Amino acid sequence: RKKCLLCNNVLMIVAASIMGCSKIAQSFEMILIGRFMCGVSLCVPLHQQYVGEISPKKLRGFANSTSSFFWSLGKAVGQISGQRELLGSQSLWPMLMASCGLPALVQLVALPFFPESPPYLLMHKGDLEGCKKAIRQLWGEGQHQAEIDDIMKEKATMKNTKILSVLELVKEPAFRWQLYMIVILTATIQLCGINAV
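^ GTR5 protein, sequence as received from the core. Prediction below:
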């Protein structure tokens, strides 16, 4: 999880650099490439997965909701920063375009000091000691055996579950209606008023 987030941050910094240099290079294509790279990044699902896995059970719901909060906050800051009086002027708009790299840079510097996700260490790597160490680092000293037991139960459940590839998921008739609903909801999210909020 952590390595994927770090790689994602590098992608965002590269995208921000490309967009920031578009005026110097006199290339609107660089803006399109940078925006495409921002769209390809996996910020939102990775954030939710990592934060959800490193949070104690009693704070997990709150931690998972932070992604929506920061998404909306980012949109609001972008709208405010884009005003002509701030970064929306003709000379400063490249800085506005490149500003998406700033949070990625902060996370790129700070994330190496955080441990890997305990469920990832135990379920995918089979590293029980690493999982215990990560839990102690995240949640402090104390008795965390109940959380480790929950992860072990989840691991046992996952052993009996077949993981489908994207192509297998699309071809599987049992998941077709759920897939249609998710695609429609995701495609129409811009119509729900989140930008206004």
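Residues 162-196 form one domain.
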